[in-house]
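Team,

Forwarding the record for the chain on the shared tracking sheet. I've put the sequence and predicted structure together so nobody has to dig through attachments.
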Amino acid sequence: MEKITFQVAPGEAVGIIGPNGAGKTTLLKAILGLVRPRQGKIDLMGHPQPYPPGVQKKIGYLPQQPRFERHFPFLSSDVVATGLLTPSSLLRPLSSRQRARAMEALTAVGMGNQGDTPFSRLSGGEQQRVLLARALVRKPELLLLDEPSSGLDFTGRVNFFKLLQQIQQECRLTVLLVSHDLPAVARFAPTLIAINRIKHLHGSAREVLQDHRLADLYRRRFSSPNREEPALG
């Protein structure tokens, strides 16, 4: 990625759109610090990378394909509680406080009555709500979501975005959302950023979706040999 410069205000919801291979997931990973820019810099909450530990704890992340086996015999509350684990606490039993935090997060996503239900028995939409609760269990200030409605049917997508909007507004969360579902992300996020290896459009959802350059952005193809190496400027 190149020439991608933007600022996000606290409490703002921003959608990131673009075709497959545009660098949207890489951009989120760069913000998280999982990949390092070859040039440019990223400042988060007033801190440059590498972020201090206190900043990392303020970030919630729901990846496109969570590294969690959806058929593993965990209870829903156990799945959420894994979001509280650290390398030093990985092998310790969950504390009563951690379990209470997990149930609080489940309640926030409307799954408070499913804490003792095996994760594998939940529907796809319910599993996604549990994974959202896992991303929220630390009560982050910034929430990054990568295609969170992927794999859900129409009703599931509508309900998920309604829930996400409610949580974002109630908690005044700053949200960066990557999605291919343009109508849904435009309803959720007042601001859109359209990228395809570089930033092409940035503005209100209505302005971006009505811009004649958007169609060209989705037709454009790139042949960079290092497609996953970000160069942020």
